[in-house]
Amino acid sequence: MKTFSFEAIKKNEKLTFPVKESNKSRFVGKLRYWWCWISAAVLLLFIALPIMIFLQLINRRLWFYPLCLWGAKVWLKACGAKVKVTGRENLNTNENYIFISNHRSYLDTATLFAHTGRRIGLVAKKELLKVPVFGQGMGFVNIIAIDRSNPESALQSIGRAEAVLKDNYSFGVFAEGTRA
What is the pLDDT of residues 40-72, one digit of tens each? Predict the structure, then answer.
């Protein structure tokens, strides 16, 4: 198999490039993608759902938060995400913060949720409320659904976010919204 060189171009030869590696990496990427979603489904259906039902029955919804932190960390690890946090020691534990980030992947929210070192509420698109188990769990951990097509509804969501901040939570917002 020939590699790219200027001599091959001068001789007007047909160039071939090794494609197997790129197909292999694409296949591995797809496997990793599906593994991430299957592991999320297992966490939601077999761990979160029974606990969520139990906590709803005994009226202890706040107890769900530590489980979600654990679940977010487990999911990130299962997906192969390596998170390195620097500067967390600069955050005052007695203050609430608003964390603003761009939305780059489906792991962003789990990363922010699991690695800020504090209780945090998040903004999410209202369509996520329709996702089984996940949508119901959003209300347990101060994830505020926002209707991006309705400005009045978006303003009401800001009011709910303000209430979350006053309740001693920090807050996370993905300013760009849709993943870039």
Answer: 889 888 888 898 888 888 878 778 888 889 999
Q: Which residue has the tokens 């955050």?
A: 91
- Determine, yes or no, domain membership for 8: no
Q: What tokens does 167 get?
A: 């309740």
H or E, element range at 173 = strand 170-174
158 lies in some domain: yes
Task: Render pLDDT for 125-149 as a digit per residue (tens, 0 to 9).
Answer: 889 888 888 888 888 888 888 887 8
Phi, psi (degrees; rounded to nearest 5) at 61: -60, -30
Q: Is residue 131 part of a domain?
A: yes
Beta bridge partners of 35: none
Q: Indicate the pTM of the whole model.
A: 0.72
Rounded to whole angstroms, the maximal C-alpha distance in the chain is 78
Range of the domain at 101: 22-174
Return the SS3 of 31.
Answer: helix
Q: What's the structural domain count of the chain?
A: 1
CB contact set of 88 (below 8 Å; sequence gap of 6+): 115, 116, 117
Close Cβ partners of 48 (under 8 Å, ≥ 6 residues apart):
67, 68, 71, 133, 137
- DSSP state for residue 179 in the 8-state scheme: -
Does residue 12 lie within any of the structural domains?
no
